């Protein structure tokens, strides 16, 4: 009988809407949690990779400076010229910007380091 089934169908339809809506909310929440987790993992990867690369580059630069007496003397002279004999006063950003030779050594060494990291691994892949 159509008269009896219409109210039942309507009730069933309301029930299915509730079930679908609850499931939709659950999926959205799970997806949101998954997206947040994915973003966090990506940020961690870039952050720690950056620290590793920077740490390695600093280590390599210090190693290279340590093996070159002429470079050490030039850096020492530049530091003496800029900061003078007073080693107790705070260092300013303006003073750091004047360390042109040290900056040049840093950039040159980092470029060499990165080239080795990139092209060294490429040459291994080509073998």
From TrEMBL:
Q: Does the keyword Transmembrane apply?
A: no
**UniProt-annotated location(s):** Endoplasmic reticulum membrane
**Which keywords accompany this UniProt record?**
Endoplasmic reticulum, Heme, Iron, Membrane, Metal-binding, Monooxygenase, Oxidoreductase
What GO cellular-component annotations does this UniProt entry give?
Answer: endoplasmic reticulum membrane
Instruction: Identify the cofactor(s).
Output: heme
Q: Name one GO molecular function term.
A: heme binding
The record's comment on protein family reads: Belongs to the cytochrome P450 family.
What is the official name of this protein in its record?
A: Cytochrome P450 4V2-like protein
Species source reads Leptotrombidium deliense
């Amino acid at each position: 009988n159509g008269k009896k089934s219409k109210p039942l169908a309507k009730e069933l339809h309301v029930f299915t809407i509730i079930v679908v809506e609850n499931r939709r909310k659950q999926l959205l929440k799970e997806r949101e949690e998954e997206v947040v987790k994915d973003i966090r993992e990506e940020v961690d990867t870039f952050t720690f990779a950056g620290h590793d690369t920077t740490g390695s580059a600093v280590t390599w630069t210090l190693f290279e400076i340590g093996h070159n007496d002429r470079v050490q003397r030039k850096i020492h002279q530049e530091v003496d010229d800029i900061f003078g004999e007073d080693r107790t006063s705070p260092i300013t950003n303006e003073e750091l910007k004047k360390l042109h030779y040290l900056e040049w050594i840093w950039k040159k060494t980092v470029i060499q380091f990165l080239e080795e990291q990139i092209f060294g691994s490429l040459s291994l892949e080509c073998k």
